[in-house]
Amino acid sequence: MLQIRDVSFSYPDRDVLKSVSLSVHSGEILVLLGPNGAGKSTLAKTISGQVRPSSGTVRIAGKDPASDPDARRAAGFVPQSIAIFDKLTVRENLCVFGEVMGAEHGKLGELADRTLEQIGLGGRQNDRVTVLSGGMRRLVNIGAAMMHGPELLVLDEPTVGVDNRTRDHLREVMRSLRDQGLAVLLTTHDMEEAEALADRISIIVGGKIMAEGPPHEIVEAAFGSKQEVRVALDAGQLTAKQLDAHCRRLDIFGLKGSQDNTVWEGLLSDDDGQLSKLTLAVPASSKGVVEVRIRQPGLRTLLEWYVK
Amino acid sequence: MTGMRFALFKVMVLSLLRDRGALAMGFILPAVVFVIYAVIFSGAAGGDLTVRLAVGDERKSELSTRFLDKLAEEDGIVFIQDAAMTATGVESFVTSGSADVGLIIRSNETALDDVESGQVAPILVVTDPSREISVSVLQGALQSAYFATFPDAVLRSTARILDDRFMDFDQRQVIALERGLAAMREGAGDAEPIDLGLNSFYERSDIVGDAEVPTSITYYAGAVAILFLLFSAANGAMTLLEEKESGVFARLASGPGGSGVILDGKFAFLVLQGFGQVLVIYLVAWLGFGVDLPGNLFMWALTTLAAAVSTAGIALLFVALCRTKQQAQVLGNILILVISALGGSMVPRFLMPPYVQDIGWVTPNTWVLEAYASIFWRGGGLQDIALPLFALAASGAIGLLSARFAVQRMV
């Protein structure tokens, strides 16, 4: 449904997107995960045709959204901000955005009923959006992009600032849309959101796609059998000589220490026995060792690894 | 695409209807301002000019009383009189602005009915140079009251000139003349006024189409209309920047119609809003002040439509060139006030120096005022307003097209 090939975009002083390629298929949620400033919103604007890439191609259902109205009609865009009309009711907002995005005027009532049911705001349809809670306004923000029945839905950080209940509801809505066959592209910097929703994840850092695939696969591809190790020391319980000895041992295993040498982190595999050797060399029960934590690396570790 | 434009037009309509402040600003305030202008200027520049005259009579003679009674009957003169009013009192009334002009009948030796009997004029007129028009009105009233009160004095002066320069009256003629003048003096006020031929000397022809309505009222109906058209168009167009800041604009622009349909929808709304706003002003002008709107409805509608098109296009272009709403508000107010002052919305164009009048042609105000003047003052036809209509429609179209181009950078 969405094909992005080698898309680059630059401002005069910096490159925002560097040869980005990705695709989103019908019936899947692709999460574009990256830290703030990674280029997620710019990529979303490129897809909506608001930003013309310096090079590369964007195709929605095979058409260029920058020049072909049909391509833009096939997609629904949910911006990061709540971009709806304050003076209109929920239903009026849905109908206006539906019509602007190309829905047939005669079918607006029926489409609004369907969308209201999907976002769960049927009982508030005649309320002005100014009297709704922030979470409900987010739902209207999403509903406005669904009215015209798009085949692709692009959501830019759709759950920023919402409470847990609304966030869970929003996630249900997105899963439901995916199950109805929509291609969903979701940008976020929230690891939990990505893990909860993603069929596939693209990690973007510094305008470049670093990894793409199902969440567990890209983690496994990056780390293999390596485990995430964290050792915390209490300098107050140790003499300078003892602390120095711990540090030398941890350094040998390739762990990286904090500035005061009290926290050491790294990735170790047991395939070569390194993990077992570490637990023997720095046992959790020894004096001055506060914590020895070993766990499977996740998306957070992966993202931090790419950012570093 | 028409449906998309209509949807955005509907948003503007609903937003206006739900904003009482904007409704009042758009439809009530202009009418109120027009009424204020109309009330002020209908008294000052129409046919109902009234002069407040402070009167002091130092003689309190039979002749001075008769003269003042006649003067008081003159149209447009209202006495501010006190039996004890002195020359100082009269001057003080004029100085303070309580009276437009003052009149003192002096207690000197010069007779009122024979100005050649003394060296000093029997009447002193106290004037404020900034109210020169009041002096002119009083001069006319003084002449009229003088002729009516002392008809014999006028003829006596004429007879004296005839006697001195052209013929010598004999004793019999002198006696007959004195007898006749005495009878005339006795019957002054009852007899037919003397016609010296001045009334037959000229005829009056008003260029104004509707003589019943002071020109100032029809002028200010148009002047206020175009001023508020500019303000309301600018305010309406500023929703572009509000929508840009909230992200709505980018969202709408990502639709199949792009940013163009947003501009078109707003343009259609601004034209309709402007037309409605001017209609309210002219309905008030018609119902309250007798401006002949029904008799000129077609040409008025064409002009008003063209004015609304022009202001809508210009306002959208201006806002599309601004970066923030605050910038648009500050610059917009300055620009509107300046072009309205130059264009004739604040001071009538005919009071401006010629070069300022020439500058006015670059403003929509001047074209609109010229078109309305053709319709309501000069009774002109379609050919007379063709050029203003073209100028207004062209400026609106150019504004809209340029705004469509400029707005692309807002995405």
Concise synopsis of the structure shown:
By secondary structure, chain A is α/β, with parallel strands linked by helices. Chain A has helices at residues 40-48, 69-73, 90-100, 108-119, 134-146, 164-179, 191-197, 215-223, 240-252, 274-281, 299-307; strands spanning 2-11, 14-24, 28-33, 55-60, 75-78, 152-156, 183-188, 200-205, 208-213, 227-233, 256-257, 263-268, 289-295.
CATH class categorisation of the largest domain in chain A: Alpha Beta
Q: What quaternary form is this?
A: heterodimer
Topology pattern of chain B, helix = H, strand = E: HHEHEHEEHHHHHHHHHHHHH
DSSP strand content of chain B: 5-15%
Strand order of the largest sheet of chain A: 5-6-7-3-8-9
CATH superfamily of the largest domain in chain A: P-loop containing nucleotide triphosphate hydrolases
Could you tell me the radius of gyration of chain B in angstroms?
31 Å
Major beta-sheet overview of chain B: 4 strands, mixed
Number of DSSP helices of chain A? 11
Radius of gyration of chain A: 24 Å
Which segments of chain B are poorly predicted (pLDDT under 50) over 5 or more consecutive residues? Answer: none
Number of domains of chain B: 3
Proportion of residues in helical segments of chain A:
25-40%
Q: Which series of helices and strands of chain A comes N to C? A: EEEHEHEHHHEHEHEEHEHEEHEH
Average pLDDT confidence of chain A is 86
* CATH topology type of the largest domain in chain A: Rossmann fold
Number of strands of chain A: 13
User: How many H/I helical runs of chain B?
Assistant: 17
Strand portion of chain A:
25-35%
Q: How far apart are the termini of chain B? A: 19 Å
